[in-house]
Design a protein that fits this description.
The complex is a heterodimer of chains A (428) and B (712). Chain A has 428 residues and is an alpha/beta fold. Helices cover 33% and strands 15% of the residues of chain A. Chain A has 2 domains: 168 residues, Rossmann fold; 197 residues, Dihydrodipicolinate Reductase, domain 2 (2-Layer Sandwich), CATH 3.30.360.10. A 9-stranded mixed sheet of chain A has the order 13-12-11-7-10-9-8-14-15. In chain A, helix 1 packs across helix 12, helix 6 packs parallel to helix 7 and helix 7 packs antiparallel against helix 13. Chain A is globular, with a radius of gyration of 21 Å. The two termini of chain A are 31 Å apart. In chain A, 60% of the residues are buried. With 712 residues, chain B is mainly alpha-helical. Helices cover 66% and strands 5% of the residues of chain B. In chain B, the strands form 2 sheets. Chain B has a 4-stranded antiparallel sheet. A two-stranded antiparallel ribbon of chain B has the order 3-6. The longest helix of chain B is centred in the N-terminal third of the chain and has 20 residues. Classes of the chains: A alpha/beta (428), B mainly alpha (712). Chains A and B meet through helix 1, helix 3, helix 7, helix 13 and helix 14 of A and helix 1, helix 4, helix 6, helix 8 and helix 10 of B.
Chain lengths: 428, 712
Amino acid sequence: MRLQTNSQRRRFLTHSMGLGAAMALPQLVPGIALGKDGTVAPSERIIMGGIGIGSRGGYDLSCFLPQPDVRFVAVADVKANRRRDVKATIDQLNGNTECATYIDFRELLERSDIDAVLIATGPNWHATAATYAARAGKDVYCEKPCTKNISQSLLLAEVMQRSGRIFQAGTQRRNLPHFAFACELARTGRLGKLRTVYAHPAGMSANMSGWVAAEAQPPREEVDWDMYLGPAAWRPYNSGLMNAFNFEKGGGLTGGGVLEWGSHCVDLCQWAAGADKTAPVEYLPPENGRLVATYASGVKLVIREDGWLPLGSCPVRFEGDAGWVEAGDSGKMVLSSPELLAGRKVAEIGGYPATFHVRDFLDCVKSRRQPKCSAVTACYAHIACHAANIAIFLNRPLKFDPQKHEFLDDAQANRLRSEALREPWRIA
Amino acid sequence: MKRYFSYLVALVALCVVSQGPMATAQEAVSESELIAVLVSADSAKADKAITCKRLAVFGSAEAVPALAALLTDAELTSWARIALEAIPGPEASAALREAAAQTQGRTLVGIVNSIGVRQDTEAMPLLAKWLKSEDSDVAEAAAVALGRIGNLESAKILSDAFTEGTDAQRQVMSQGCVIAAETLLAKGENSTAIAMYGVVRNANVPATRKVEAVRGEILARGVDGLPLLFEQLQSPDRAMMNIGLAVARELPGTEVTKSLMAELEKMEPARRALLIFALADRGDAAALPALAAAVTDADPTVRVAAIEAMATIGDASCIAALLTATTDSEENVALAAKQTLTAMTDASVNAELVKRLQEAKGNTEMRRSLIELVGMRRIEASVPELRTAVLDAASDATIRQAALTALGETVQLDDVTVLIEQVASPKYAEDAEIAQKALLTAAVRMPDLNACAAKLSAAMRGKSNDIQRNMLNILAAMGGSGALDTVGRVAQEGDRELQDLATQLLGNWMTVDAAPILWNIAKAPKHEFRIRALRGYLRIARQFIMTPEERLAICQNAMTIIERDAERKLVLEVAGRHPDLEMLKLVVSIGQSTPALKADVTATALAIAQKLDGSDEVLALLAKIGQKTVKIEILKAVYGAGDKTKDVTGMVQKCVHGFPLITLPKSTYNVAFGGDPASGVVKKLTIDYRMDGKTGQATFAENAAIVLPMPQ
């Protein structure tokens, strides 16, 4: 099935301009509804709240805020300085002082005026917060990695489907032209029979967070450590853990390794392999820096750190019988033959901006179509990463059934599919 | 005993930071040893916590009593549940049930959650009791646990409690009921599921639960749920409308598609457009008649939606309507039609477009549109029609030029001469530039580049310099050995003007086989562009994949003719990018023979030395350029901006190898230091250090080379 292009969506939404005012239901109709001065009628705006807006979230926010049909009205964060900073940014843009701040994101979710949320906490919180948001009736843009294990991946997709919410994983490369084109070449047979897809993991070792020395705990108003830990097992306050880039990434056991860039690069490989609703069925532990997984179709997924052309970070490569393509964050791609371009002019957008991905999400909030990295798509891309991590951890070959979502004849691998959440949190 | 625990803790700690040793640890530490950590009064909580996680993978019923003892510890209960949720068998389930009786509040909620994950049917009586708990968190957890168990008995418990409960209790139980119904539906218990969904959607529960229940009930009813679906699609409540659109995508069957099509006519335009998108996402071609009708809808929003839906499920039957829409008075509608005509993937589309092109001779506007379409879709079967349009003296200029562009996209090697002739001997001057672009488009995509290059080379002989320049640019864009031969020949034998262009093209050539030609030009003492060729020669060594020996040979060759420091710096750059011992020797020799380049030589040599083994030979080479090892201690390193910083001391310490230059393992600070602490802001790295006993501090702009100065 051909996906709708960004320009198509934009045109439809732009074309709906002015219709909203004639509707009995404000915001029911998708429509940017720009006025002559470029403003948007208040009834046409998507009202949003931010949850856990730190460094990456701040970048995401900078992609959302210029969109004319978005208005942020609240932020929830466990850190006082972040609440303060984000509120100041939003208030300045809105020209008032009304951006509400919350320590507990559940209070933000209780607001009926908020349509959607941006979740950019740490990976520890992503799936849990996203499902709470969906159950509260909010659409969700959630940073990656979205889940800590296979079970969370499935539950996330299940909850989004049950609640009918729009979910976009923060894998913004799906909305960059050269990556999308490379995937299209592979998916549509232009490379011949697809043989191998390659993903860069940005590390295949663990980044596990443990229980480190206790430090004096700041007051809750400054840092709410209990809310920071959230679904992660309890441990005493430690400022290093508080600010750790990888805290509980990929769960506390198998680590973030493949998941860090894999949630981008494996995701693109899944797309290229036409495997958005499945995952590889076999995983071999790394050998000489290469982890090889195999799809039921026979296509190999090779996760490797070396051997890439100098095309920037997060590279992917797709090889078929009749050609290959490699692309990276420089915005450039290299083709085995220029013939593969087929006269297409593919825009070179380097630096992996999220603006297009954010716009895709907002358009889908209005049209109720699925964005490029929906919950189901993200689910299986993450499952592939988690399964690879489990193969690394157990250091043995694994076979996986992507229909039953279980490893074959390996009880220990199956135990690693999920992990209990700290009380009172649950994903359901 | 203490010593034993120290060993074990060290082993476990090792597992926390690295996966590699885990297999070894797994073999070295038995389950009984792990249990001993849990039960020992000497064990720190941190060790017990990590041990729980290991038991989650490697533990058995043997470990359950020790784990169960931790369930009532507020700090360790979550760690214990990690293991108890995962360990198979009735012992773990029993332990959770027993511990629940001793706990309350959050701890109890956690245990109930774990009971739900384990789908422990023996816990149903307890869960029934907790449904009525005064602690709403416990009651909600119990309801969800019963929902996850999802059998007829748990459903009855939930239904009864829901019916008998107060409004407040129903609100708390509603999520569990929805999950129970969903689980039952998956098991084929549709009637029970429908009943549960119905009870929830008609109760005083949160609106979001009603939304979920409505969706579930429609899906459970199947075709019989269509009236309920239509009700949502017409609902004034946005949430209900949205769930209706979601279910319209999920509910399977052509009968459903046809019912939705009929419903379209009853809807106001805005809703109609949204439902058209849902129809497209169903992927059912049965919706095409409704889409065709919607293409002529009075409302442009509906027209655009229908046209875009055709891009997903359209076939040849849509072409007539789409071609008409390309002339729609609304610009967005016309543009959508063109894009859909380009994007449709159905196999029938191409043949239909060629047929229409053959029949469109009397209609200039339609013919031009069709020519553009067959070009954009790259339909090879259209080439005869396109060639006729180019060569026919009666062709309108706009038709001719559109056909030239389309030929660029469609022509194959056998017919590429049509385009070559239009470049080599343009029949119409106004077509020349378009023909040049079309030939470039065609040439670069030829599977047999050399055969195409031979045709271009033959065609450019005896032509004016303007024509030859055009052909050379096309050959360079193509690449391949045939193109290289021609460009190389012109670079050495052509007149000055053509040599100028050809050497520029060779200097940017994208394959290493250009190196011998560039070397020949570089060493020709009278060639006007020999310096350019030399720089291009070194570029190949700098940028392309080759063996170390081949790269060294290029650098050594170059050094035999280099006369300027600018080119010597290029050699240093090659060495810096591809460091090995031989390159270090070359760099040192440059340093010894060219004192003016001391600073560049020193930086390059130190950078190379960082990557090498610190052998006596390396140290001896560095000594030749006045460098010696120093003792460096990194005291503190902070990366970031303002108050958004991160401590990178450990990472910088790992990169110190006895020289003032510190090379990070990744090309940017953000990547090397594991993330961007202050996105969108220029950051700096500040290092406090001690060098040969003297303390100093240095600050480096983001991604700058890190060379620590000797403190005063």
